[in-house]
Amino acid sequence: MSSIAPMVASSVTVEVARPQHGLGVVADDWEAAEVWLRAIGSRPKKGSPETVATYRYHLAKLRWYCDNVAGKPPSRWVMPDVTAFFEYLRDLPETAICAHDGYRFARADEAGYTPFRCKPSASSQSDLQRCVHAMYRAWREVGYIGMNPMGFHGAGTQRKVNANRAVPLDLYGVVLETMEAEEKLTFEQRQRYVRDRFVLIGLRELGLRTTEFIKATMGAFQPLSDPKSGHTYWIMHIEQETAKGNIERKIPVTKTALVALMAYRKAFGLTALPLPSDETPLLLSPRTRKGVTTSGGLAIKSMAARRDFGAWRALTVSVASVPS
Length: 324
Hints:
This protein has about 325 residues and is mostly helical. Among the domains are: about 30-140, no CATH class; about 180-280, no CATH class. It is about 40% helix and about 5% strand. It is built from nine helices and five strands. It has helices spanning about 30-40, 50-70, 80-90, 120-140, 170-180, 185-205, 210-215, 255-265, 305-310; strands at about 220-225, 230-240, 250, 285-290, 310-315. Strands 1-2-3 form a three-stranded antiparallel β-sheet, with no helix packed on it. The protein has a two-stranded antiparallel ribbon with strand order 4-5. A hairpin with a 6-residue loop joins strand 1 (about 220-225) and strand 2. The termini are far apart.
């Protein structure tokens, strides 16, 4: 009778490939950069959408340089590569500036596109240097790279901001979120909210002087059509009479600013978009003007009727300094 040998369980160890760094599985440096950006965005105090958007804007320039000039990704850079990059920025050639046909800059999917719309100023170069240095430092901390090629270059000079005349970009997001969270129980509160939101976004996006903003009319926002593409873009025309230093100029209007303007106008009973002939003051108060008459000369006495007729009081230089 043959005996049956006892079965002995044998353990089999399966080796699971693990990444050699703390970023997880990333295909290339640009995915590694996105992991870093998402981590920044999750920070409770310094992770505003504006900060992430600014860093992404800087990294677009770094990526374009890597793809079109350096020929190698940033994780393979050594100190001379970093030096060459910042020397390139200081003396940016005309061929590196985004194509412009007189109406708009080339988009990312069009010929002639680059992320550089002009030669970067010294402060812009410093901002980009701090961004890239922060990315390298984070990569080094999680083991994605073995050394920081910017270790001797440092993070660049911190831009000095006059706290009395400038608002940190991170603070915009905090203010807008706080405004959105506040209760708006009355129609007038809603009007104030959309107006103030437009003012905040408009000052950030358009770079206007306060007096230029107050003195402008709705008709300053004007459409501009591109005969080649058929697309319509919006500009803000700052006339000589209201411009700082009497210098007339036209400012491109971003989509964010235009959407805020449309919401603001609709809250005051106006059409979403203004006509160039619209002489309505740009900044309106929810309060109405007294002494208003109809086209037939009849006095409009009730506040509700004055609202229906759009007889809003304008914010002037003197009125804008107090709540209205």
